[in-house]
Amino acid sequence: MQGREQFATRFGFIFAAVGSAVGLGNIWRFPYMLGENGGFAFLIAYFICIALIGLPVLLAEFTVGRRGQSDAINSFENIKAKSFGKIGGFLGVLSGTLILSFYGVIAGWVFYYLFSYLTGAAGNVESGGFEGFFGDFIASSVGPVVWQFLFMVVVIGVVYFGIKKGIEIANRTFMPMLAVLVIILAVFGLTMDGAGEALSFMFSPDFNALGDINVWGAAVGQAFFTLSLGMGAMITYASYLPKDSRLPSAAGTVVVFDTFFAVFAGLMIFPIVFSFGMEPGAGPGLLFMTLPEAFGQWGLGGTIFGIFFFLFVGIAALSSAISLLEVCVSWAMRRFNAGRKPTTLIAGAIVTVFGFLSALSQGAIPALTEMKLFAFLNTEGATITFLDVLDKFTAQYTLALGGFVTALFIGWGWNKVEALRETGLQDTTLGNLWIWFLRIVAPAGILYILITNLISMLTQ
Ligand code: TRP
């Protein structure tokens, strides 16, 4: 039998894991969540959720993957046959498919914006015109499908070439580019007039909103999403690791970089938003309407900034989408005993075609744009778009549930000594702390959020 594919270098794995974590979650989702949930309070809740739930669960996923040496479902089985753990894996492959189908749509919008800035089309939009520019684009029945398709072709192309030649090389190219771009963009942002206001929005202490349960629900969901947790992406990547790499330091590195990118995304976006007197709480449209509106008032500088900015977001989205597809491909290869290349093409095609439904759900097809059946997922309106159904359903429920199962598997289901040996944390305080976080703190936190989400959904 052929051996399992492996990363060529330790850094290859770190780059890939950071690449998976840093994505639309950091640059699109985090800033708008921060804007909607009161700035500083959300930041604090988010830091707490990352430290108490995100980091322990991330290390748990690394441990399951490296020990199990298989895909998101079978890794659990390899460690302990007939364990409840693989329920988490099933949820994972399901969520992976659903998330990638709409993630590709939003990434497609990003590349359309990059293209529009490059051709000058976006630079010529008149003041106040981006609502129409964006609205017309996403409601059309051709553009969003074409751009999603193009994006998915690149994602499928990378996964097609496997771990070393595809995923590792792509991430080793992309991550340094991202680091350079984010620093340039943040320095730019911080030299603008609105920088002071932005800093006080993000960092001036205001603990009132911490009493609001919705802020905490949003923060936990964001922690899972941004660290790629709860669906086996990190299990799958860690299964391509050799035995001698250190898991705790890898987990720490991913968390530090991911948080760094989120905070810096805020530091580049909010100064611009405030400098041009825009609203920070614009929601998902922040990236596609508010920010371009601000770029527009800035003239040529804004167009140049726009090019670099959407290039940055696009690259970040690409490396995350690659990890989502790899979860499905890795599972399907084993399940159907098939080679990587045909599996990637078929799985990629299925996800892409399913994604068309999300791409067409922003106005093109009324039945998908104003869904009543799933309206209960939406706390704000009487109908919901198909894309939002997938986003809310995964971020608020299946990811958290997947993380819950993984935490319980390490905490209670498997064997504490073995788990600690796999991480190299045996007989350390840190190791014991980790186990207790997985036994009590993380599951309790997740359960609390799941239940309050459920209640607020049912009683609205
Ligand atoms: N973490 C990525 C982001 O922030 C998205 C992502 C990639 C993801 N893989 C995932 C989210 C797995 C949840 C689960 O954009």
Can you walk through the features of this model?
- The protein is mainly alpha-helical and 460 residues long.
- Helices cover 75% and strands 0% of the residues.
- Helix 1 packs parallel to helix 12.
- The gross shape turns out to be globular
Main sheet summary: none
Average pLDDT confidence is: 89
- Number of E strands: 0
Low-confidence blocks of residues: none
Count of separate DSSP helical elements: 19
Order of helices and strands: HHHHHHHHHHHHHHHHHHH
Name the ligand types: tryptophan
Using only CA atoms, what is the Rg? 21 Å
Helix content: over 70%
Beta-sheet strand percentage? under 5%
Structural class: mainly alpha
> What separation lies between the terminal Cα atoms?
55 Å
Which key terms come to mind for this protein?
single chain, 460 residues, mainly alpha, 19 helices, globular, binds tryptophan
Summarize the structure.
The protein is an all-alpha fold and 460 residues long.
SSE blueprint:
Layout: H1 10-21, H2 24-36, H3 40-68, H4 74-79, H5 85-119, H6 130-139, H7 143-160, H8 162-190, H9 195-203, H10 213-226, H11 233-238, H12 247-275, H13 290-297, H14 300-335, H15 340-359, H16 366-369, H17 386-413, H18 416-423, H19 429-459
Helix pairs in contact: 1-8, 1-12, 1-14, 2-10, 2-12, 3-10, 3-12, 3-17, 3-19, 5-7, 5-14, 5-15, 5-17, 7-8, 7-14, 7-15, 8-12, 8-14, 9-12, 10-17, 10-19, 12-13, 13-14, 14-15, 17-19
This protein binds tryptophan (TRP).
Tryptophan binds next to α1, α2, α10 and α14.
